[in-house]
Write a structure and sequence with these properties.
heterodimer; A: alpha/beta; eight-stranded parallel beta barrel; 8 strands; B: mainly beta; four-stranded antiparallel sheet
Chain lengths: ~350, ~130
C-alpha cells in the first residue's frame, strides 16, 4: 500500500535562519517538531562553503540530521551559469559545476537532487553517466510560470523520456495548481504602490481564464502580453511588475499528474497563506492529495512556504507558524482518496 | 520583496582602512535565498545625500577582511557571499562628515533562471 510522507523544505525557514531565529541544527529540530518525517535542503543556503564545504561542516550537518531523526529527502541545487557578467558558461563548464553539486549532495546524505527550472537538457544528459555512477537522481523542478508549457521544460522532459534512466525524474511544485491568485502577493504589491483597480482586474482575469499565464504568455513561459483592458488601468510602475508576477502561478488541470506520475520523484508542497480554518488560500490540497493517492504516489510532499516573499518591509515573517499549520493540514488529509 | 534584507540597521559607520584613510562602511544581507559566488553580485550603488558614490570608489568584501573593487569583483568566483552573512560595502572617500546623512543602498544579483538581474534597495538616515 502506498503511503505519502511529509517533509519540510528549509526554503521555508529562510527568514528564521537569516535573522538568527534558528541555526541549522535548530531548523532541523523545528522541522522534526512539526511532525514531518523528512527534510529538504538547499545546500547553497545553509551549508557554508558549498560546493566544497569543510569536513567539519559536513559532520555538523550529519550529526544534526541524525539527532533530528529526519530523512534527507532532496537537495535543491543550481548551476551558476551566470557566474561571469560577460558570458554564459558553456555546456562542459556547466557539467563540471553540476557534478560538484552532485558530489556535495552525496556527501550530505542525499540521493535525490532538484534541478532548478530552465536547467539545460544537454547539460543534464552529459552529467547523467556521472550521476548514475554515484547513485544520485536528478529531477527537474516543474514550477509555475515555467511548467509543462515552457520551452526549456518541454525539451528537458523530452530528453528524460528518451533517456529512460532511473536517475532522471521530475519534482512538481504545487504552485502549478493555484485556483486563485495568492492575495498575500496582492497585498504586498499594494503596500509598495500597486493600483487597486489593477489588483482587482488580475483577480478577474485569473478567474475568467484559469490563470493569467495562459492569457499573457502565448503558450510559453512567463509573459507580458497584457490586454488593453488591463493596461488602461496602469498608473504606477508597480502595476506592470505585479501583472508579470501574476504569471508565476498556474491553474493546471490535475490530469498532468496522471500523465507524469511515473517520473515524479518528489513534490514541493508550495503554500502562500495558511488560513485559520486549516486550508491554503490558493491551492486545494485535499483534491490534489486524493488524486495522488489514487495514482499510488509513495514518496514525499515537502512544505515550501512562499509567503515570506510577500511580507511587507520590516514586518515579522511567521514562517514557523505557517509551516506548522501546513504540516497539520497535510497530516489531516494524507490518506484522502484512499 | 527582499528590501527588508538590504542595508542592515545600525551597520553604517566610518572605519579605518589598511591604507590609513578612513572609509564609510555599511553591511547588507543578500537579496536572495541562497549564497552565491561574489562575481554574481551584479550591481552595488550607494547614494549619499543625493549624490551617487562613484563606482570606482566602492569596494565590497564577503568576510570583512578581503576587499574587492566592483571591477575586481566581476571575476571573484572562489569567494562566496553566504546566505545569512553580511556583505560589507565601503565607499573609499575618507569617510562621511559628522552629522546626519541620507544614505541609499541598491543591490542587484544575477542568477541563471531569472531573466533579469534583481535585488532591492533601502534608504536610512545615518548619524556619524
Amino acid at each position: 500500500m502506498s503511503q505519502i510522507k511529509t517533509a519540510v523544505s528549509l526554503y521555508t525557514l529562510q527568514d528564521s535562519y537569516a535573522r538568527g531565529r534558528l541555526d541549522l541544527a535548530g531548523a532541523l529540530e523545528f522541522v522534526a517538531s512539526t511532525g514531518a518525517q523528512g527534510v529538504e535542503l538547499i545546500s547553497d543556503q545553509m551549508i557554508k562553503g558549498t560546493p566544497f564545504p569543510s569536513d567539519e561542516m559536513v559532520t555538523t550537518w550529519r550529526a544534526a540530521l541524525e539527532k533530528s531523526g529526519l530523512a534527507p529527502v532532496c537537495n535543491d541545487i543550481f548551476i551558476n551559469s551566470t557566474i561571469y557578467r560577460n558570458r554564459t558558461l558553456r555546456v562542459p563548464e556547466q557539467v563540471e559545476l553540476l557534478k560538484r553539486d552532485l558530489d556535495v549532495s552525496k556527501r550530505l546524505g542525499f540521493d535525490l537532487v532538484r534541478l532548478v527550472s530552465d536547467t539545460s537538457p544537454e547539460v543534464t544528459l552529459a552529467t547523467l553517466p556521472y550521476a548514475e555512477s554515484i547513485g544520485i537522481t536528478m529531477a527537474l523542478e516543474i514550477h509555475a510560470g515555467m511548467s509543462f508549457q515552457g520551452t526549456l521544460t518541454a525539451a528537458w522532459i523530452e530528453m528524460m523520456r528518451k533517456a529512460q534512466s532511473e536517475h532522471l525524474g521530475l519534482v512538481i511544485d504545487f504552485g502549478i495548481f493555484c485556483e486563485r491568485h495568492p492575495r498575500v502577493s496582492t497585498n504586498y504589491f499594494k503596500s509598495i504602490g500597486l493600483t487597486p483597480a489593477v489588483a482587482d482586474k488580475i483577480d478577474e482575469l485569473y478567474a475568467a481564464n484559469g490563470d493569467t499565464l495562459r492569457l499573457f504568455a502565448n503558450g510559453s513561459d512567463h509573459g507580458m502580453n497584457f490586454p488593453p483592458e488591463l493596461t488602461r488601468l496602469f498608473r504606477s510602475p508597480v502595476d506592470g511588475e505585479f501583472s508579470f508576477f501574476s504569471t508565476g502561478y498556474e491553474s493546471t488541470p490535475l490530469d498532468v499528474l496522471d500523465e507524469h506520475i511515473g517520473y515524479v520523484r518528489h513534490f514541493h508542497g508550495k503554500f502562500y497563506e495558511m488560513l485559520p480554518d486549516g486550508t491554503e488560500y490558493s491551492i486545494d490540497y485535499p483534491r490534489i492529495i486524493a488524486r495522488l493517492n489514487q495514482l499510488g504516489y509513495d514518496a514525499y510532499i515537502a512544505s515550501e512556504y512562499e509567503g515570506n516573499r510577500f511580507t511587507a518591509v520590516d514586518q515579522p515573517v511567521d514562517d514557523q507558524g505557517q509551516v506548522r499549520a501546513h504540516q497539520a493540514m497535510l497530516a489531516a488529509h494524507l490518506n484522502d482518496g484512499k | 520583496m527582499f528590501d527588508s534584507y538590504v542595508f542592515t540597521e545600525g551597520s553604517a559607520r566610518n572605519v579605518p582602512t589598511d591604507s590609513g584613510e578612513p572609509a564609510f562602511q555599511l553591511e547588507t544581507l543578500i537579496t536572495y535565498y541562497r549564497g552565491i559566488p561574489l562575481s554574481m553580485v551584479h550591481a552595488v550603488e550607494l547614494v549619499v545625500d543625493g549624490r551617487d558614490a562613484p563606482q570606482s570608489e566602492l569596494a565590497i568584501s564577503p568576510n570583512g577582511t578581503d576587499w574587492f573593487t566592483l571591477d575586481e569583483a566581476t571575476t571573484v568566483t572562489s569567494y562566496r557571499w553566504e546566505y545569512g552573512t553580511p556583505l560589507f560595502v565601503r565607499w573609499l572617500n575618507g569617510g562621511l562628515s559628522g552629522g546626519d546623512h541620507k544614505v541609499t543602498l541598491r543591490l542587484k544579483i544575477r542568477v541563471a533562471y531569472i531573466p533579469v538581474p534583481f535585488g532591492g534597495e533601502r534608504t536610512r538616515t545615518v548619524t556619524i
